[in-house]
Amino acid sequence: MARETLLNIVLFLMLPVTAGIALLLDEPFIITLVTKAAILALAGVGLNIALGLGGLVSFGHAAFFGLGGYAMGILASHAQSYTPLMETPFLIEGTKSMLVIWGAALVTAALAALAIGALSLRTTGVYFIMITLAFGQMLYYFAISWPAYGGEDGLSIYIRNDFPGLNTLDPIQFFAIAFGVLAIALFGASRIAKAPFGLALFAARQNAERVETVGLTPFRLRLVAFVISGAVTGLAGALFADLNRFVSPTMFSWHTSGEIMVFVILGGVGRLFGPVAGAALFILLEHVLGGISDFWQVYLGILLLLVVLFARGGLIGTLAGREVAHD
Amino acid sequence: MSLLELKGITASYGPSQALFGVDLSLEAGEVCALMGRNGMGKSTTIKVICRMLKHSGGTVHFDGRDLGPLPSHKAAQAGLGLVPEGRRCFGPLSVYENLIAAMRPGPWDFERVCGLFPRLGERSDQVASSLSGGEQQMLAIGRALMTNPKLLLLDEATEGLAPVVRQEIWAAVATLKRDSGLALLVVDKSLAELRQIADRAVILERGRSVWSGAMTALDSTVADQYLGV
């Protein structure tokens, strides 16, 4: 068995094993931390499709994360206040159904990614980074100035949304939901990477002209990847908002975009389980170093510098070495 | 109507004109050799056909379509399969991944390509950048075949390869001609091999087509005058 496969299995099992041990030790806070790691890893899996496969350095993925969060917040707040979301031209009620909210988050984030991608993918390099950042910040300031949904203060949801057959207020059951979604996303991402679409996307990252000569359109490949990436990150946003029972404009901010990128870089850009390793390490550092110093992010910054300078494959690359096929 | 028809093609790289009037026609199932000394416009002509370079004058028709307004990916989708000069495989992808990334429905699939080049089957998990030059050339031809083209354009497919590997490539091209019925436009300097394979030849001299006809009609006088052999 390849070293990376073994490492992936260990990483995959690490989250439920930690949650299980925390359950046995009656430490619900640890379960919540592991759930947070799983959700942030999901956001990273989304970004990794665009960044790792397509080479798209998006600094605006907080836009999709926030849209997913607000899709949850808006639908749930209308359900809890028994007021319709809109009455004309047709009635839309709020909902507490997690599955419906996920659908809304996926569609909202995908449509936003389609619009943002259609414009920003016409540029490359630093211009692409700046345009995606600008879209994220536009949504951030829009959310701040939107008093109907809390404005700068954000929006609290008093009761976690419903999932058929599960008590979502029980930390371990909510973890099971988040972990299940992460597992599905990882499976989907692995299929995409091995499918002709993913291979062509990766090839377009290497040389767009060469890809065109075999009849493929780099722009279309990248746009599809960007939409899938945005939708997955949006779903993570909905789960994150449900975990905290709170949404705020911070979800849209460039800090959030930066953090999602940090998970991917720490774990390993383009590595399937890179975002899982990166998000888990981030949460661990936040918890452990945050208890020692308020300036724990200085240490995170040093770690990030070391990874970028000396371990380009991130944590997975350092532990498992170069990938057999596309690195 | 011919499968491929170029009439009076002119093209430039910025201010420097490279083609001054290229005429070329190719029928379905035919093998045409595009010949000429270095720098005479063979690769530029291939770039114009594949829409990697816009022509400034003349017309390019392929399979009844005017290729003029099309971008290169549309030209490829119309049925042009390019094996570019210098192979240009997707280095970090494996042999199998290189082939299926370019795949389009049709008679050519991974198994059939491996039937033509058994070495690709043996090395299907190996990354393209670690293959030998000859194997990369086989992969470049295989990748173009996986797009199921109507016309395969081979730009200097045997350049820089060891004689034994060149023979393998020529044998594969002969098999393609015999078994697939694919039209081939071959740019190469090996006159002896081209005589074995090509039905017709077009010779370029300083960006103009100066001779065209049946390969059997390309006698030593013509070869000496335009090809320097």
List keywords for this structure.
heterodimer, A: 327 residues, mainly alpha, ABC transporter involved in vitamin B12 uptake, BtuC, two-stranded antiparallel ribbon, 13 helices, 71% helix, globular, B: 229 residues, alpha/beta, Rossmann fold, 6-stranded mixed beta sheet, 4-stranded antiparallel beta sheet, 9 helices, 10 strands
Biggest sheet statistics of chain B: 6 strands, mixed
N→C terminal distance of chain A: 18 Å
Number of domains of chain A: 1
* % residues in beta strands of chain A: under 5%
Q: Reading side by side through the largest sheet of chain B, how are the strands ordered? A: 6-7-8-3-9-10
Terminus-to-terminus distance of chain B: 34 Å
- CATH second-level architecture of the domain at 1-76 and 185-229 in chain B: 3-Layer(aba) Sandwich
Question: What's the number of extended β-strand segments of chain B?
Answer: 10
Number of helices of chain A: 13
According to CATH, the homologous superfamily of the domain at 1-76 and 185-229 in chain B is: P-loop containing nucleotide triphosphate hydrolases
The percentage helix of chain B is: 25-40%
Largest sheet of chain A: 2 strands, antiparallel
Number of strands of chain A: 2
CATH topology of the domain at 1-76 and 185-229 in chain B: Rossmann fold
Give the second-level CATH assignment, the architecture of chain A: Orthogonal Bundle
Radius of gyration of chain A over alpha carbons? 19 Å
- In terms of structural class, how would the helical and strand content of chain A be classed? mainly alpha
Helix content of chain A: over 70%
